[in-house]
Design a protein that fits this description.
alpha+beta, Immunoglobulin-like, six-stranded mixed β-sheet, six-stranded antiparallel β-sheet, 2 helices
Length: 217
């Protein structure tokens, strides 16, 4: 909080209200997902480059600390499920991530756990199946909701985990099955959903600003 002093020219109510609006709109403490260039299939991919559903163009992870839930979502160039043998692998670095694809020159993709999401609405982490309804598909987007209890920390706080997503065509084996990495050779952080108490304080602040604005008018 800050106090306006008569010796300092105060911000206009409109400017303060705009700043409050930005605070309400923007999640705290993270990047708002990533975008990935369309058509950037790996040269080593053995599948068809016509498989738009295996070409990631945007991805995001939301983390809700109140419920300890991660929501993974990726948007592809084509409708999810167009490739019958396609699925989506999310690499998660919880603090002990290593460069599993260093031999292919991808030293920036770090992970110590993977989450699998499938177009048929199923998913898994290791040998644990995700509960029914955890994976949803809507056109070009596939989303998975994962409890943080299935992704225990190996050093990082959950809000500081990092991620990369790579589609695979299960008709092929090894690295040749991977069509794309998003981002190309790096990880990205989650968008942390503000807790209800934080949202309440922000809302009260915005309401106070609106009241002052009406009073000044």
């Amino acid at each position: 909080m800050f106090r306006l002093r008569t010796a300092v020219r105060p911000l206009s109510l409109g400017a303060v209200a705009a700043a409050a609006t930005l605070m309400l709109a923007a999640p705290a403490h993270a990047l708002d997902g990533i975008t990935d260039r369309a058509g950037d299939f790996l040269p080593s991919f053995a599948g068809s480059i016509a498989s738009g559903d295996l070409d990631v163009i945007a991805a995001t992870v939301l983390y809700d600390p109140g419920s300890n839930v991660f929501t993974f979502s990726s948007r592809q160039s084509g409708a999810v499920g167009s490739t019958p043998t396609g699925f989506y692998v999310w690499g998660v670095n919880r603090g002990a991530g290593t460069a599993g694809f260093a031999a292919q020159g991808l030293t920036g993709v770090l992970f110590d756990r993977v989450v699998l999401l499938r177009p048929d609405g199923t998913g898994s982490i290791g040998g644990t199946a995700l509960p029914a309804g955890s994976v949803t598909v809507s056109g070009n987007v596939i989303t998975g909701v994962v409890s943080g209890t299935l992704l225990p920390s190996t050093g990082f706080a959950p809000a500081s985990y990092t991620f990369n997503v790579w589609p695979r065509d299960g008709a092929f084996a090894g690295f040749a099955a991977i069509s794309d990495f998003a981002p190309d050779n790096a990880n990205f952080t989650a968008t942390v959903v503000p807790e209800p108490s934080t949202l309440l304080l922000m809302s009260l602040g915005a309401a106070g600003l609106a009241w002052r604005r009406r009073r000044a008018a």
